[in-house]
Design a protein that fits this description.
Blueprint: E1 16-18, E2 28-30, E3 80-82, E4 91-93, E5 144-146, E6 156-158, E7 200-203, E8 207-208, E9 217-220, E10 227-230, E11 239-244, E12 253-256, E13 262-268, E14 279-282, E15 284-287, E16 296-301, E17 306-312, E18 318-320
Parallel strand pairs: 7-9, 8-10, 9-11, 10-12, 13-17
Antiparallel strand pairs: 1-2, 3-4, 5-6, 11-16, 12-15, 13-14, 15-18, 16-17
Length: 321
Amino acid sequence: MSETTSIILKNSSNQLVLGDPSFLGPTTTFSAPTPSASRTVSIPDAGSNSSLLLSTGSQTISGSQTFSSAINLTASSNQVVVQPGGSGTTSTLNFVQPASSSRTVTFADPLANANVIYDVLAQTLSGGKTFSSTVTLTPSSNQISIMPGGGLNPQFNITASAPAANRNLTIADPLGNDTFAYVSATQSLSNKTITGPVNVIHVTATVALTAAQSGSTIFIDSSAAAVSITLPTIAAGLKYKFIVTSSSLASAVTIVAPSANQAGLVIAGDATAFGTVPFSAKTNVILGTGSKLGDTLNYECDGTNYWVNAQIAVHTTITLS
């Protein structure tokens, strides 16, 4: 047979048997069924010693392979297993069979190298993300953390405590750039209507007021011992109202400033002028036991002084020091 002549095998199947059947040993048989039209199967140059890729059995494929049609992976789970470097641990992609119809999961062009987002593991996301459905955050606290500038900068943690029932918090259109109002920080508020009661404090014992209690009405009740009410550090915008709600105080009540920065005016209802009108640079305003029900002192701070406007029944019931 010439080396330049094609071999034609005319059997309808099992055209090529490798091995020695006469010794009853195992053989390898190549069978080509009759095609609907003549076909040419080409074995390209592998570039080095190589093996045929079979439809069964485990094989390791080296070199880049290009598939011009979709690859169907029919395993019921763990369809793709990736082992970087060929040894050690693996990463497995598991696709659950869709419940009712086939699904298409699309990887959009990220326009740069990017990573997949996991439902576990802390990750940093860059680029704007748009969510077209409600985002549900399930941690019991610190559901949102904001770290301006990233890195090791301090962060804002926003916590929503579990409510007794579902609640909706609506952020109305402020009609311009605006800032949230806090319960503890000193802030200037404009165009606000308060429809509920303001903070009310009943004083029967010594107490130190805080900046967070600014705007409070402090009711001074009868007490068995002398009481001090200490004002917080000077800060513009702080304001407090003091009202005597006892027909007679058992002991003196002293309103104490951080330093000698109480100033203002005392108006007495007994038609007798108060000793110092107006007064300034005082640390203590003392309400004596003769104070009357309804005596009122309004305090407002401009950042330098606590300005006092006092309206009392009897001019001798207030002393200053």
